[in-house]
Specification:
Layout: E1 2-3, E2 6-7, H1 21-30, E3 35-36, H2 47-57, E4 60-61, E5 64-69, E6 85-90, H3 97-108, H4 110-123, H5 130-134, H6 143-152, H7 159-167, H8 182-191, E7 195-198, H9 208-218, E8 222-227, H10 232-239, E9 245-248, E10 265-266
Parallel strand pairs: 2-3, 3-4, 7-8, 8-9
Antiparallel strand pairs: 1-10, 5-6, 6-7
Length: 276
């Protein structure tokens, strides 16, 4: 049996999305989603608002977060060279104050990195104030917010141009920040009775026969087989890997993916915690 009623990967303006958590919940509901998770980057700031709106709409809400982690394996596929891996973490029973405090430290580490990127841009002749970036962010401060500030300043015309020419991986103003390992995050999430899933794994440029055994060894519970960036053939390979799967449209509220939902997934292979 297949369903479009589940979406476990989306973002609000609490990280790099465009809309409030409540608005993303309404968009999910309008698309027929019945089980939904908000997974903003390195922050739980939108959970309460999302949960309240889901209660009104009759949606099952699963608190989630997309945690930015260290690169685990070097890319072997041409064209892929990410500076981080992303691990989705879900908390059906909620998360402890201790975990949320640890998560807050991850979010705070984004500020020194942003200041370093602004300094790099300044050295290249483009002055942008931190406040001009922060006004685009309601939570975790990230490169998409800087890209919007660069557009406003007339440095670039699009977010894509900002990433390609200035702040993307290997671009002149890119700066890294300290990141946790996948293994560390898995241990912390498991201590909370949570569930982990490697997000959009095609992005990492690692052959599946190498990737799958590695993440299993690290303690990852699932793999996000059904992501908008994965072809049908790639999704099939992930299903055949033997790991439980998750599904996520990765909506940020933008024009190309305005709403959560419309992601067809086979229930047979979905992790049981996310089945209707």
């Amino acid at each position: 049996m297949w369903t479009e009623s589940i979406d476990l990967h989306s973002h609000s303006y609490r990280s790099d999305g465009l809309w409030a958590p409540s608005e993303m919940a309404r968009r999910a509901h309008a698309n027929g989603v019945k089980i939904w998770s908000l997974t903003d980057h390195d922050t739980s700031a939108g959970w309460d608002e999302a949960a309240k709106e889901c209660a009104v709409l009759g949606l099952k809400f699963i608190p989630g977060v997309e945690i930015t982690c260290e690169v685990e394996l070097s890319s072997t596929i041409d064209g892929e060279n990410p500076k981080s891996w992303h691990l989705l973490a879900y908390f059906p029973q909620g998360a402890s104050d201790e975990f949320l405090q640890w998560l807050a430290h991850l979010k705070e580490a984004r500020l020194p990195r942003m200041k370093a990127m602004l300094e790099a841009l300044k050295e290249m002749g483009h002055v942008i104030k931190l406040s001009d970036v922060e006004k685009f962010a309601e939570g975790s401060l990230g490169r998409p917010h800087l890209a919007r500030a660069m557009m406003e300043a007339g440095i670039v015309e699009t977010v894509q141009e900002a990433f390609e020419d200035w702040i993307g991986n290997d671009s002149p103003a890119f700066r890294s920040r300290p990141l946790p390992s996948i293994g560390e995050v898995c241990r912390r999430v498991r201590a909370e009775s949570g569930i982990t899933s490697l997000a959009h794994c095609k992005y990492y440029g690692v052959e599946l026969e190498v990737l799958i055994p590695h993440i299993k060894q690290l303690g990852v519970d699932c793999i996000e087989a059904f992501h908008h960036s994965h072809s049908d053939s790639y999704r099939l390979k992930l299903i055949q890997s033997g790991m439980p799967i998750t599904v996520g449209g990765d909506s940020h509220g933008t024009e190309n993916r305005p709403s959560p939902g419309k992601m067809l997934v086979p229930l047979k292979y979905l992790h049981p915690a996310f089945c209707p």
